[in-house]
Amino acid sequence: MITKEVRKYDENNNTIYYKDSDGCEFWWEYDENNNCIYCKISRNFGEDEEYWYRYDENNNKIYYKSSFGINIQYEYDKNNNLIHRKDEYGSENWYKYDKNNNIIYYKSIDCSENWYKYDKDKEQIKITEKEYKKLYN
């Protein structure tokens, strides 16, 4: 038996329900800015999954939580660039940007650090820490 896909939308054309051809179902809820604040996935096998999201006044996602224990917090600068990400285990990512909002520094959860500059075509180039300090300090 072939099941047909079903989609339902709210008045803002956001998908609020989807059933795929395998019978898996998805539900979404949105805030007044059309940001997804809740998602539920019901599969034909295993437990349902649920996700919750929160946003700041600029519609940047600042919080993510899942029913299977993942919690992530996000921070942004005044230009809405992601500058910090932290999860429930204390793993963190850090980001810095130049005046053109290009990423120039990234520190990953494994504490590795990467520095960047951009060429005349705006292509990202990985550089050393010494070069970074010379360019941006």
Strand proportion: over 45%
Radius of gyration: 20 Å
Order of helices and strands: EEEEEEEEEEEEH
How many helices? The count is 1
The structural domain count equals: 2
* Arrangement of strands in the largest sheet: 1-2-3-4-5-6-7-8-9-10-11-12
The computed structural class is mainly beta
What is the average per-residue confidence, as pLDDT, rounded to a whole number? 92
Biggest sheet overview: 12 strands, antiparallel
Structural shape: elongated
> Distance N terminus to C terminus?
65 Å
Query: In terms of per-residue confidence, which ranges show pLDDT below 50 for 5 or more consecutive residues?
Result: none
The number of strands is 12
- Helical content (DSSP H or I, runs of 4+): under 10%
Overview of this protein structure:
The mean pLDDT is 92. This protein has one helix spanning 129-136, and strands at 6-9, 15-19, 25-30, 36-42, 49-55, 61-66, 71-76, 82-87, 92-97, 103-107, 113-118, 124-127. The chain has 137 residues and is mainly β. A hairpin with a 5-residue loop joins strand 3 and strand 4 (36-42). The chain folds into 2 domains: 1-69; 79-137, no CATH class.
Outline of this structure?
With 137 residues, the chain is mainly beta. Helix content is 6%, strand content 50%. It has 2 domains: 1-69; 79-137, no CATH class.
Topology, element by element:
Layout: E1 6-9, E2 15-19, E3 25-30, E4 36-42, E5 49-55, E6 61-66, E7 71-76, E8 82-87, E9 92-97, E10 103-107, E11 113-118, E12 124-127, H1 129-136
Antiparallel strand pairs: 1-2, 2-3, 3-4, 4-5, 5-6, 6-7, 7-8, 8-9, 9-10, 10-11, 11-12
